[in-house]
Amino acid sequence: MTNRHEFIDESRKQWSSEPAFVASMAAAAVGLGNLWRFPYIMGENGGGAFVVAYLIALIVVVIPIMILEVAAGRLSKGSTVGTYRQVGPFGAIYGWFVVLVTIAITSYYLVITGWTLGYTVDALRGEVRTFNDFSTGFNSLWYFIGTALLAAVVLARDVTAIEKLSKLLMPVLVAVVLFLVYQASQTPGWGQAKAFFFQVDWSRLLSGNLWGFAFGQAFYTLAIGQGYLVTYGSFIPRKTHVPRACLTVAGMETSIALLAGWMIFPFVFSFGMEPGQGSTLAFETLPRVFEQMPGGSWLAVLFFGLFFAAAFTSSLAGLKVVTAAVGEEFRLSNTMAVTLVTGVMLVLGTASALSFTPLEWRIAGKPVLDVIDNVAGGDVIIFSGITGAALLCWFIPPNRIRTVLGTANRWWEWRIYLIGRYLPVLVLLWGAITFAVYQAHGAVW
């Protein structure tokens, strides 16, 4: 009988090169983590102060954990569950927890990806609508179902399909975003947008709530604690320089996130809209932009088509994490694993899809999708990322990780283990201090 490791070795393919890994990993998070989520989270959290906190979180903590997760996946050459099984029985339990988190996130990712598909179809028909008009019927549900089924077809072709799609579409998407930033710079709201970015209310940096959102977005942007990095890392070719590849991806992700803000907020202020209006910010703003722009109908087709492609690769990445774990742990074929996971997504994602239909499904007065995003995309992935880093750094010897980093520079190894081992202690201390302050002064966390 074929054992689990033999099954993995026989079924696993690799990225064709380091640049292919970089393009595919960047595409996994660029779509929604940056173009959709970063602007609306920034808008809800005060602009410039949030950007400062986000960049600090990214540089000091998140990039080392990113390198660690990719290296761990490369070391194990297995799924998320198989990778964390290296640290013992609890590691396997944690691995399944990561898979469950990714299932929750991907279920609503597919809904938002469906929105981008719907906007692409509307753009082709010359009828791009604001989100309130788009969601008057059951578009959110039908496009979600269509997107989930399309993702299943693509994913059944395995990793090479993702690689080819990423290489083709990423450069074009970046070019379109840059053009829209230029157009935004010509609007009356450009000055307000600059102030929103650069006028930092430093007192806000004393807010634990702001730091929670900043770390949550940094973890979300680079897919920390969600199994993406571990799974994609397991497909890395032998000669890849892991720190260099991760820094390249992090630089691309951060640049596109900031560009998305520069693309959205000048128009938001020009139209007199509120920057903190939530998850539909981009879908309320951009249709108005294209309606008033010369040649806007053609640009709308190009932008929303590429937005769908970028969001689609993000969804594929989440599905790949889950199907890899299910297929390798239960020894299922890729087709069977994809079919099973797609069925689960169709059931779970329906609640998020129906929250933007006439049925208006809500939790505590908020759309189901927004609630899942705030929980799974915030505190849960921070907990997941920190826990995963701690398990890897306390139970896997540094010399094993060193062998797969692809560099003889010990500095990265030292920094990774410093963050991974002692960040949980600092978080617990921070929580204890905050709780004590709250109890003593009634301060708001």
Give an overview of the whole structure:
It is built from 18 helices and 2 strands. It has 445 residues and is mostly helical. The chain has one domain: Hydantoin permease, CATH 1.10.4160. β1 and β2 form a beta hairpin. It is globular. The termini are far apart.
Tally of separate domains: 1
Overall shape: globular
Q: Could you give a short account of the major beta sheet? A: 2 strands, antiparallel
Oligomeric state of this protein: single chain
Distance between the termini: 55 Å
Write out the strand line-up for the largest beta sheet, numbering strands in chain order. 1-2
**What class would the helix/strand composition place it in?**
mainly alpha
**What string, H for helix and E for strand, traces the elements in order?**
HHHHHHHHHHHHHHHEEHHH
Known CATH architecture? Orthogonal Bundle
SS elements, strand count: 2
Query: How many whole angstroms does the radius of gyration measure?
Result: 21 Å
Helicity level: over 70%
What would the CATH topology be?
Hydantoin permease
Global mean pLDDT: 84
What's the CATH class, please? Mainly Alpha
Strand content: under 5%
The total count of helices amounts to 18
Low-confidence stretches: 1-11
